[in-house]
Amino acid sequence: MSDVLTISQVNELNYEDFIGRFGNVIEHCSICAAAVWRFRPFHDIRHLHQAICSFLDLLPNTGKEGVLRLHPDLAGRLAELGSLTQESSAEQKAAGLDTMTPEEKQLLKDTNSKYRDKFGFPFVICARQNKKEAILKGIVERLEHSAAEELNIGIEEVKKICMLRLLSIVPDEQ
């Protein structure tokens, strides 16, 4: 099987192959792919993305918090150990998180810790749509939000990450 698929090929995937290809479009959350498989055939990549977004939107808050908890801290311990998923590693590198100064790393480590302590889940932002400066600014600003605001913002960021991951598997045919 090639690295990229057409939407027709997606619609022909059996359950196991679908999970194998789409099980990490939401970080470590293959249940999402399992849930949307039954909605085939998908008209296009946006239809598949909408099915995933609907799944996320219908989760209770505890489920949404769980989805956010599956994400690693940005430039955190897993990144230092080289233990990120292939997708997360590429996304963090694209944002320039691998080129941070020691001071920037410490700031991110400290704010990640404060964020996780306050909200109970890690700071999630679509790294591929941001650079390290915007990420550092964003986490500091978002620390001022309420838990409800951050839950909603975090899930919206997950949806952005998902769309970019989907497009890497099924390039837009339009």
From TrEMBL:
The keyword Ligase does not apply. The keyword Plastid does not apply. It is an enzyme of class 4 (lyase). GO terms for cellular component: peroxisome. Keywords: Decarboxylase, Lyase, Peroxisome, Purine metabolism. It comes from the Eukaryota. Its EC number is 4.1.1.97. It holds the Pfam family OHCU_decarbox. GO terms for biological process: allantoin metabolic process; purine nucleobase metabolic process; urate catabolic process. Pathway: Purine metabolism; urate degradation; (S)-allantoin from urate: step 3/3. Its main location: other. It is found in: Peroxisome. It catalyses: 5-hydroxy-2-oxo-4-ureido-2,5-dihydro-1H-imidazole-5-carboxylate + H(+) = (S)-allantoin + CO2. One of its GO terms (molecular function) is 2-oxo-4-hydroxy-4-carboxy-5-ureidoimidazoline decarboxylase activity. PANTHER family: 2-OXO-4-HYDROXY-4-CARBOXY-5-UREIDOIMIDAZOLINE DECARBOXYLASE-RELATED. Belongs to the OHCU decarboxylase family. Catalyzes the stereoselective decarboxylation of 2-oxo-4-hydroxy-4-carboxy-5-ureidoimidazoline (OHCU) to (S)-allantoin. This is 2-oxo-4-hydroxy-4-carboxy-5-ureidoimidazoline decarboxylase.
